[in-house]
Amino acid sequence: MRGETTLKGVDDIAMASSQWRVIGLCMLFNVIDGMDVMAMAFTGSSVSAEWELTGAQLGMLLSASLVGMALGSLLAGPRADHYGRRPLLLAGLSLSGLSMLLSFWSPNQSLLMLLRLLTGIGTGAVLVAANVLTYERASQHRRNLAIALQSMAFALGASLGGVLAHALNTSVGWRYVFLAGGLITLAAGVAGAFFLRESAQFLVLDQQRHQSLSIHPAATSTMPRSKYRALFTPAQWQQTTSLALALLLLMACFYFVMSWTPTLMTLNGFSEKEGAVSGVLLCVGGMSGALLMGLAANRFGCWRLLLGFLLLNSVLMTLIVPAAGLSGLAVTVCVVTGLLLNGAIAGLFTLAPQAFDTAIRTTGVGVVLATGRLGAIISPVVAGVLLDAHWTAQDLFMFFAGSQIVAALLVWYSCRGSKACSSS
């Protein structure tokens, strides 16, 4: 990939305590984002019972935050490239926290859906800004690990959110899940306002841009439209489209596996306990996948590991259903599948910021993440349509296994001849 506006001395400086503080804060923000995004999934049954919602209405509530995340990732990018990563990250936290807080007083499904959309927009902005800020604050040697930790933090937040939501939902009611999530998010925003520092690469770029504008006042190259156009120039479009489509396929597969595996196992004759256990095992494997990618990327190359994860996952996906009847094999297959899926997501999140220059980095990462989020949105719909067409569970897993091979080809195509890939 092309993608490095290198500041002499910045990338070669060892990671000081201030850099780790920023990375740690970004991890905290991702943990909280994971909790916020999953809040509706953990309270959906209670909300549905209280308001007597139809399946379609509940589905809209569950998907609202995903749609918001796609919009937030897409819209925040150019503004973060113009105003800075830190302001957009803090704005995203404020929007998410306030929307979660107001959800406590939601009188009906329509208003709650709007607030879930706004929560998603804030979350999408945070994910993009935190990814790029981590990339630009980390030293080159620790960069892969630092970004992979962000992916692990989001998964950790989703898991912790489940524990918190279950405790509050059963004791005081679903509204308090949103109240607690909003207060925690706003508290994190306050901490960020005091301790978070802007990227040095962006500050130098911003200074150069102001100097250029003082000489050429009519320059408009920082407008959002020009940022998006820069992603599809002859030298850039290949990496933009390849990474975006690869993440779309990967996220579609991830959400299919995480959402449908327990249900499909039950529909194919396995007990509800066996289906639930398979879902838990996927999460257990996923928690370690991102960490493994981060630790091994410097040694073996991020893009090589990513290709290996995608191809191996395409094989294991075809074994989930046949292995379900053998407890020992089922445990291994589910854990490794979760590991590979989350590790591959962490790998793409690591490659994305390397594909773009500093001036368009957040815009590019935002487009890639927004496209990936579309995969998460359409995946349950595609699976449902195919089930209605009498596809078996094995047919569905084979279908999504094939999508991982296509994703691997897209990653290979985006990295072909790229200097950034050869060094990552």
Automatic annotation (TrEMBL):
The keyword Aminoacyl-tRNA synthetase does not apply. It comes from Pseudomonas fluorescens. One of its GO terms (molecular function) is carboxylic acid transmembrane transporter activity. Residues 22-419 form the Major facilitator superfamily (MFS) profile domain. It is a multi-pass membrane protein. SUPFAM superfamilies: MFS general substrate transporter. This is 4-hydroxybenzoate transporter PcaK. InterPro entries: MFS (IPR011701), MFS_dom (IPR020846), MFS_trans_sf (IPR036259), Sugar_transporter_CS (IPR005829). Signal peptide: none annotated. PROSITE patterns: MFS (PS50850), SUGAR_TRANSPORT_2 (PS00217).
